[in-house]
Write a structure and sequence with these properties.
Oligomer: single chain
Structural class: alpha+beta
Organism: Lactuca saligna
Helix content: 10-25%
Number of strands: 41
Protein name: Zinc finger PHD-type domain-containing protein
Number of helices: 10
Shape: elongated
InterPro entries: C1-like_sf, DC1, Vacuole_Formation_Reg, Znf_PHD
Keywords: Metal-binding, Repeat, Zinc, Zinc-finger
Distance between the termini: 106 Å
Strand content: 25-35%
GO molecular function: zinc ion binding
C-alpha cells in the first residue's frame, strides 16, 4: 500500500527509542527522507514509488546485448554483488542481470545505472514523437519547423547565441532556433524595468527604424531581425538571452574603477542645476560673495576693508601673471584680450571671447577664466556614477547625440560621456514663449504613458526617444536641448555703447538681457535669453538682433 513516510518516521516503535529509526528503500538501499512510498508497515518493508514501478525486464543494447531481468539479491541467497557498469560493490537490494543457462550471472547492473538509460530512452522516444509533428511558429511564419533528433552546436537565429542543444530547423530554408527559444514566454517581468512587462517580438518593430537602439543589459546594438523583449511605451529593448539571464554578475558598469575618492564624490557639484552654470569662479568664492540691491556681485577680500564690485576692465599688467592647469603639460599665462580685433576661442567651451583668458603660446591653447575653474569631478542626474573631466577627441555626447571637440565629463567604464554644454548649460527647467506662465522641465527617458513619437516644436524634427529633452506635460510641447537652449558661441564677448549699423535705420545699443523668454531675435527668431544683443531703444521701434546675427551680417554684408 502507499503510505506517508513522515507518518511512519514520527510514530513510536516497540523498541522504545526516542530517536526514530532511519527508513531505507529495499530496492536501491537509499535513505527515504520524505514523501509517499510503497510499503508494508508490519514487516518494515518500504520502496520509493519509482523503485516499486521499475519494469521487470529491460532491453537496452547500449547496456548489454541481451535483455536484463530485475533480480532480488536476497532471493538469490547472497548478500553482496558487483555492478559491471559503475564498477561499484553493492549490498543487498535489487539489480538487473542476465543469467546463462548454467545459472551463472554473466552481467549485472545496479538500478541507478539502468534508470539513467531508462530516462534517456524515454527522452529519445518523446523527441522522436515530437519530431513527427511539424510546427508553425510566429517567429518564422513562412515555413514549417521540424525538431531534429540529435543536439547540435550552432548560432541560433532567435537568440544569436552559439550553444549546444536540441533545435528546430526550417524545412525550406536556412533557419535554425534552439528548442528552448521556440517556447519563450510571450511576456516577462524584467527586474531592471519594473514599470511595465516586456513583450516578445520577433524583429524590431518598423516604427523604431528611424533611430539606433542598444540592449539595455549588454549595451550591444539591436539588429532589426533579432528576437527581443521590449516595452514599446518606454522604447526599452533587451536581447532575449540577456532578459532570461537573471543571475547576471556585477560588472565594471556597476562598480566602476575610477580615481575619485568617496570624499570627492560627496563634495562634487550635482547637475543639472536650477540655473545655467556659467560662473564656477563665483561659486568657488561663494561664501565670500554677496549681492547688493542692484544685483551686482561683491566680494570681500582680505586686502581691502570694503566690498569689491566685480568689474571687467582692461589691465595691461595682468599679462605678467601665470598659473598652471591640469589640462595642459605647460603653464598657462593669464592674458587680457580686451580691445583686440579678433575674438579668441576657448578650447574648453568653444565660445569666443574678448576678455581675460589663460593661454599656452606653445600649444596655442586658450582657456577662458570660468572654464579654468570648472570642477574636476561632478555628479549628474542622468548617470549613477561620478563623471570626470576629460578632453577626448570628438566624443559623441550621450545627451544630445552630437560630436563635441571640447571639454567633456565622462564615466569611462560605462562608455558614458556628456559634453560640457549639456552638463553646465542645461538647467533643470527653462522658460520659453511656447509655454507661457510656467517653465519646461528637463526630462529623462522613458516618458511614461507617452507611446507616440516626439517632435521638437522648434525645428519640427522627430526626436530620439532615448535622449533627454525638455518636455512640458501640460502643453505637450517637446524641445531638443540644443534648440531651446542654443549654443552661445559669443557667450564670453562683452561690448557696450550705441552704434549705427547699415541694416537698421536707428542706432542700436548693446545690452545683455536676463531671463526674458518672450523676447526673440528679429533676424533668426530664436530666444535671446541671457544673450548679448543689439537693441533699438527708439520708442517707435522694437527691433533687436542677437550678437551672432550681427556678427554674421558684418562678415557677410
Amino acid at each position: 500500500m502507499v503510505v506517508n513516510i513522515e507518518t511512519i518516521v514520527g510514530a513510536s516503535f516497540e523498541n522504545g527509542d526516542e530517536k526514530p529509526e532511519a527508513i531505507s528503500c529495499y530496492a536501491c538501499q537509499k535513505h527515504i527522507s520524505s514523501g509517499f512510498v510503497y510499503g508494508c508497515t508490519q514487516c518494515r518493508y518500504f520502496m520509493h514509488k519509482a523503485c516499486a514501478q521499475l519494469p521487470p525486464t529491460i532491453d537496452h543494447h547500449s547496456l548489454y546485448k541481451q535483455p536484463l531481468t530485475l533480480v532480488d539479491c536476497k532471493a538469490m541467497h547472497f548478500r553482496t554483488w558487483h555492478c559491471d557498469v559503475c564498477r561499484q560493490n553493492k549490498v543487498l537490494g535489487l539489480f538487473y542481470s542476465f543469467m546463462k543457462h548454467d545459472n551463472i550471472y554473466s552481467f549485472t547492473a545496479c538500478i541507478d545505472c539502468c534508470v539513467v538509460e531508462l530516462v534517456h530512452k524515454a527522452e529519445i522516444d518523446a523527441i522522436k514523437e515530437e519530431a513527427r509533428i511539424k510546427i508553425e511558429h510566429e517567429g518564422h511564419p513562412q515555413h514549417t519547423l521540424t525538431l531534429q533528433l540529435r543536439p547540435g552546436a550552432f548560432r541560433c537565429d532567435a537568440c544569436n547565441a552559439k550553444n549546444e542543444g536540441l533545435f528546430y530547423q526550417c524545412d525550406s530554408c536556412d533557419f535554425w532556433i534552439h528548442k528552448t527559444c521556440a517556447s519563450l514566454a510571450p511576456t516577462i517581468h524584467f527586474p531592471n524595468h519594473l514599470d511595465h512587462p516586456l513583450t516578445l517580438v520577433y524583429s524590431l518593430p518598423e516604427k523604431f527604424f528611424n533611430f539606433s537602439y542598444y540592449c539595455e543589459s549588454c549595451n550591444i546594438y539591436i539588429r532589426w531581425n533579432e528576437w527581443l523583449y521590449h516595452c514599446a511605451n518606454c522604447r526599452y529593448f533587451v536581447h532575449i538571452k540577456c532578459a532570461l539571464d537573471t543571475k547576471q554578475l556585477s560588472t565594471s558598469r556597476d562598480n566602476p574603477s575610477t580615481s575619485t575618492t568617496e570624499e570627492d564624490i560627496n563634495d562634487s557639484l550635482h547637475f543639472p542645476m536650477s540655473q545655467v552654470f556659467t560662473d564656477p569662479l563665483k561659486l568657488l568664492h561663494f561664501e565670500k560673495t554677496s549681492q547688493d540691491d542692484d544685483g551686482e556681485t561683491n566680494i570681500n577680500h582680505w586686502s581691502h576693508g570694503h566690498p569689491l564690485i566685480l568689474n571687467v576692465e582692461p589691465y595691461p599688467n595682468m599679462s605678467d601673471i601665470n598659473c598652471s592647469d591640469p589640462i595642459e603639460d605647460h603653464s598657462l599665462d593669464l592674458i587680457n584680450t580686451w580691445g583686440q580685433q579678433i575674438y579668441c576661442r576657448c578650447n574648453s567651451c568653444g565660445s569666443f571671447g574678448n576678455t581675460f583668458l589663460y593661454r599656452c603660446e606653445t600649444c596655442k591653447f586658450n582657456l577662458d577664466v570660468n572654464c579654468a575653474f570648472l570642477p574636476r569631478t561632478i555628479k549628474h542626474k542622468s548617470h549613477k556614477h561620478p563623471l570626470i573631466q576629460v578632453m577626448d577627441p570628438d566624443p559623441l555626447c550621450n545627451a544630445c547625440n552630437m560630436w563635441y571637440d571640447h571639454i567633456s565629463y565622462a564615466c569611462k567604464p560605462c562608455n558614458f560621456i556628456l559634453d560640457m554644454y549639456c552638463v553646465m548649460r542645461s538647467p533643470d527647467s527653462l522658460g520659453h514663449r511656447y509655454c507661457k506662465g510656467h517653465e519646461i522641465p528637463l526630462t529623462y527617458p522613458p516618458v511614461m504613458d507617452h507611446p507616440e513619437d516626439f517632435y521638437c516644436d522648434i525645428c519640427e524634427e522627430e526626436m530620439h526617444p532615448k535622449l533627454p529633452l525638455y518636455y512640458c506635460g501640460k502643453c505637450k510641447n517637446s524641445f531638443h536641448l540644443y534648440c531651446i537652449n542654443r549654443f552661445k558661441c559669443f557667450a564670453n564677448v562683452f561690448h557696450e555703447g550705441t552704434f549705427n549699423v547699415p541694416y537698421h535705420k536707428h542706432p542700436l545699443t548693446y545690452v545683455r538681457r536676463k531671463k526674458t523668454p518672450k523676447y526673440v531675435c528679429c533676424n533668426c527668431n530664436q530666444d535671446i535669453n541671457g544673450c548679448l544683443i543689439l537693441e533699438c531703444q527708439s520708442r517707435v521701434c522694437s527691433f533687436n538682433i542677437c550678437f551672432e546675427c550681427d556678427y554674421n551680417k558684418e562678415m557677410d554684408p
